[in-house]
Prior knowledge:
Elements: H1 3-24, E1 27-34, E2 43-50, E3 53-62, E4 68-77, E5 80-85, E6 95-101, E7 107-114, E8 120-122, H2 125-145
Antiparallel strand pairs: 1-2, 2-3, 3-4, 4-5, 5-6, 6-7, 7-8
Amino acid sequence: MTPSFLLRLSLVVVVFVSVTQAQDAEITTKSLVVPGKSGKPDIRCESTYRGKTCIMRVFSERRPSGEFVPYARSFQAGHALVVDSDEDRDGFFETFAVMEDAEGGRTHVEVFRRDRDATMHPVSAEELKKMQDMLDGIAGFWREALPPK
C-alpha cells in the first residue's frame, strides 16, 4: 500500500465516521404549550434533543400581543445543568445558575447575577443557601415520591 492510498483510505474513513455520527446525533425540537389559568399567561416549553437526549429547553410566556417571549433557558450535558433566566420578564437574562448532581442525591449549585454590561457576579452566601435548600427539598420530594426499586 502506498502512502497516497493510505491517506485516501483514512480520509474516506474519517468522512464515513463523521457522516454516521451526524446521522446518529440528529437534532430535533418538540414544543408543548400549557394554557394559562386564572389570568396567568400560556407557557410554551421547547425541548431540543440530540438523538434521544434532551440538551436544551426554552420556556416562554405568551404576551398580550400573542407572541411567545423566552424567560428561561436550560442546557444539559451529562449530570450538569445550566439555567439562564429572566426573573423580571424584561427581556434581559440576569440570573445564571450551574447545577450538578453530587453524591447522595444532592445537587451542587452555583448562582451568578449578570449586569447590563454583561459582567457576572456570584450571589451572596445567603441567597445561594436558599437556592441550595430549595433544590435539596425538591430532591427529597422526588426521592420519597419515586423510591428506588
